[in-house]
Request: fold
Amino acid sequence: MSLPESARPATAAAQALGNVDPSTGAVVPAIHPATTYGRGPDNRLLSGRLYSRADNPNYDEPEALLTHLEKGAASAVFSSGMGAATAIFTALKPGDHVLVPNVIYWAFRSWLVGWATEWGLRVQSVDMSDPAKVAACVQPGKTKLVWVETPANPTLVVSDIAAIAEVAHRGGALLGVDSTFATPVHTQPISLGADLVMHSATKYLNGHSDVIAGSVTTRALTEHWERIRTVRVQSGTVLGPFEAWLLLRGMRTLFVRVPAQSRNAQRIAEHFAGHAGIEAVLYPGLPGFPGHDVAARQMRGGFGGMLSLRVKGGAPGALAFIGKLRVWKRATSLGGVESLAEHRASIEGPQSGTPQDLVRMSVGIEDAGDLISDLEQALA
Ligand SMILES: *Cc1c(COP(=O)(O)O)cnc(C)c1O
Reply:
């Protein structure tokens, strides 16, 4: 990093660590589509780089910035959040015991109970919001990884990273955190004791609903970390150079976008708490929300841009409500600058445990008044 060591995270992000292209002076990096790298007359690699499935120059800056923001030792970008999360688990060994939350991103749950279990991981779900229950499930020497997602998709359940880190470490397990909803703006899981932090960079890190990407940041350069990097190379879950370039561009505005999204979400949550058309507002920033105290401890400067509304009238009520929205778009995914609403149970299917009346809202950076009036007219 060419910035002073004292530079704060918002400065590091906006300046992309202060880098300037050394060969041209350009303040924005070039895109390197090359798949392969040359050798000199002595057959030595000219740059140390070999082939783009192993590494790409466009990874350097987003990985370095993530490592800086997450206060870790190293980072790796992946072709998706799923690519990043599954790499952490497949870097374990068949027979290893892992503890995962009972409220967790749906597609990842399907992979854990399906593929990962068939492949030989012993996957056990637990109420991750209660560290005592987690402690009771850790099998010392056998449990290799405890996985936290906080706030969790889609009911915003909050887990205490510091308390679970202690429980995991006491049993000899690593702690991995899916910090997609919290972002490095609000939470640094490694500072709270986590060993690995994963993001669906598709969401807030990129922030513009135009890149599928993932990342893992590690606290230390361990053997497990080397295996995670090897999984990326060997399974080929590599991010394209243009996507990596877009990701860095998105990350430069992270500290403007996310606080704005969190402020809007807080206003919406407060406005609709106790509203006649709403059964419940699920948002960690509301003092009455279970987990608010933990969230207030481990999230700084806001509670994130995700909230869920439980609408009166069950699934028909929720679907009628989103059908009337005119500003919010009806779409899955989250973390972009535009507000999105989704009837989550419809997409998760019949096996879903998500309440039928739940609408998941990804709050954007629009005018909060416009977002609130649109929701009001849709509830009327
Ligand atoms: C979207 C998401 C993922 C999966 O990421 P992709 O980039 O879609 O593969 C994982 N965890 C959470 C919390 C997510 O929201």
Summary: The pocket of pyridoxal-5'-phosphate is lined by residues 80-82, 85, 105, 108, 149, 153, 178, 180-181, 200, 202-203, 212, 214 (CB under 6 Å). The first helix runs from residue 9 to 14. The chain has a mean pLDDT of 97. The two ends are 53 Å apart (CA to CA).
